């Protein structure tokens, strides 16, 4: 082995230990090696790879091996920040820039001066934000929202995406000049199914961690189960593998795991299993009555959230303003009310109000009623949440992990779906 290569390999192993990165796959090692090589420079890096492959490790490595290591490292999930606030989050705002801007606020680019910002899911940035970002990349300049004063910052940007940004460029959703600015070097992480040797290694590490965490003896897979583990497609990559490891660790009392047991924890439909092709349910996964019911519940929950948002704004801004700034939301919730084009927000809500009984009255009974009502509500919420998780998983599987298609099918925005994936760790 050439001296230089040996040096890099030793460093790669040390970095893996330091960042608790499991695996020995050559493509993984090459990705880490590239991160080590670019770290001392200020070269812009784009990390690519499917969701859940561990892209976040790369910017952490780059930052900690760079001259910026004593500066701030900020990881920003561009897909998880609402469009309306992203400019202010990234670049800050002046007092009074918009309703609710009660004081001047520093954005991440100001806070991270001298450090590194990791822009995860960079393809989700709105076009207006992309223009601001391009300016920072070109000359380190930015302007706070609501200000006219140009400020300077010295931040290294590492970006990541799990979608093909060329498609977004073609559709006019991502600026080509920004893409090239962000991608001097591309570091690609392989999907788990291409890291055959690493799958069992990772699984063993996760079950050992969970055994420790839940104070249980570790699980052991028999040979057939190991084979299935390695053949499975793992569309959700390491995140999915870890979830499965956790579920089995918690739920299986018999710690010797057979093929059948493992299989019962893996989705059987869709694209995860290469050998099982299910033709029967191709048309629609939401065709059974039960699924339609869940879909209705899911829609109801989404409407409820919209209503909550409207009510909050109503309290803050008064009725006329709410109607002006939320025409789409109002249309979505109330539909086209032809005879009733103006919705009277001042009207008393027609909801039943539970009046608390006086203490002299049947205090105990009333109190129990409240408790009962609260318990039911909590259970309902949990059950609904479980259904929501099921539906999201199902839709993602059906659409081969494509969030846009899954969001369309579920009738929610891609941004909401993204947040739910993070919230439920799917
Ligand atoms: N090599 C590894 N060894 C151990 N754990 C890992 C490894 N790579 C990733 N993980 C774990 O897998 C999970 C998913 O990783 P991460 O969030 O970095 O994925 P990602 O590629 O950024 O996904 P997304 O595109 O959805 O943001 C994390 O909990 C991370 O700690």
From TrEMBL:
UniProt cross-references to Pfam families, sorted A to Z: AAA_lid_14, HTH_8, Sigma54_activat
Bilayer-crossing regions: none
Superkingdom per UniProt: Bacteria
Domain (Sigma-54 factor interaction) ranges: 21-250
InterPro entries according to UniProt: AAA+_ATPase (IPR003593), AAA_lid_NorR (IPR058031), Homeodomain-like_sf (IPR009057), HTH_Fis (IPR002197), P-loop_NTPase (IPR027417), Sigma_54_int (IPR002078), Sigma_54_int_dom_ATP-bd_1 (IPR025662), Sigma_54_int_dom_ATP-bd_2 (IPR025943)
Keywords tagged on the record: ATP-binding, Nucleotide-binding, Transcription, Transcription regulation
Keyword Transcription: yes
PANTHER family referenced in this protein's UniProt entry, alphabetically: SIGMA L-DEPENDENT TRANSCRIPTIONAL REGULATOR YQIR-RELATED, TRANSCRIPTIONAL REGULATORY PROTEIN
Protein name stated in the entry: Regulatory protein, Fis family
């Amino acid at each position: 082995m050439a001296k230089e290569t040996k040096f890099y390999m030793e460093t790669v192993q040390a970095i893996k230990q330091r960042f608790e990165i499991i695996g020995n796959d050559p493509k993984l090692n090459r990705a880490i090696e590239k991160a080590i090589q670019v770290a001392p420079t200020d070269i812009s890096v784009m990390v690519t790879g499917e969701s859940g492959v561990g892209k976040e490790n790369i910017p952490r490595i780059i930052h900690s091996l760079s001259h910026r290591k004593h500066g701030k490292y900020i990881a920003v999930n561009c897909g998880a920040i609402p469009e309306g606030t992203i400019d202010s989050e990234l670049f800050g705002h002046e007092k009074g820039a918009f309703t609710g801007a009660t004081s001047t606020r520093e954005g991440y680019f100001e806070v991270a001066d001298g450090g590194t910002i990791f822009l995860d899911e960079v393809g989700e940035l709105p076009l207006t934000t992309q223009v601001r970002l391009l300016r920072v990349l070109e000359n380190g300049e930015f302007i706070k929202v609501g200000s006219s004063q140009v400020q300077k910052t010295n931040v290294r940007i590492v970006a990541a995406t799990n979608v093909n940004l060329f498609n977004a460029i073609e559709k006019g959703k991502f600026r080509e000049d920004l893409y090239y600015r962000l991608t001097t070097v591309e570091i690609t992480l392989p999907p788990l199914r291409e890291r055959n040797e690493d799958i069992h290694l990772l699984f063993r590490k996760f079950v050992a961690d969970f055994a420790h965490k839940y104070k249980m003896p570790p699980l052991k897979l028999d040979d057939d189960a190991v084979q299935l583990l390695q053949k499975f497609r793992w569309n959700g990559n390491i995140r999915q593998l870890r979830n499965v490891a956790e579920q089995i660790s918690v739920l299986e009392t018999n710690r010797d795991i057979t093929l059948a047991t493992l299989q019962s924890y893996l989705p059987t439909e869709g694209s995860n299993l290469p050998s099982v092709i299910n033709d029967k349910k191709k048309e629609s996964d939401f065709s059974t009555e039960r699924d339609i019911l869940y879909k209705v519940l899911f829609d109801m929950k989404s409407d409820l959230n919209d209503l909550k948002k409207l009510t909050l704004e109503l309290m803050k801004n008064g009725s006329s303003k709410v109607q002006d700034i939320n025409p789409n939301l109002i249309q979505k919730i109330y539909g086209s009310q032809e005879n009733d084009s103006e919705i009277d927000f001042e009207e008393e809500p027609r909801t039943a109000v539970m009046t608390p009984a006086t203490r002299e009255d049947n205090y105990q009974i009333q109190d129990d009623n409240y408790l009962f009502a609260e318990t039911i509500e909590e259970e309902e919420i949990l059950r609904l949440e479980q259904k929501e998780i099921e539906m999201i998983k199902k839709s993602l599987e059906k659409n081969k992990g494509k969030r846009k298609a899954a969001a369309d099918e579920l009738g929610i925005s891609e941004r909401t779906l993204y947040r739910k994936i993070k919230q439920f760790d799917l």
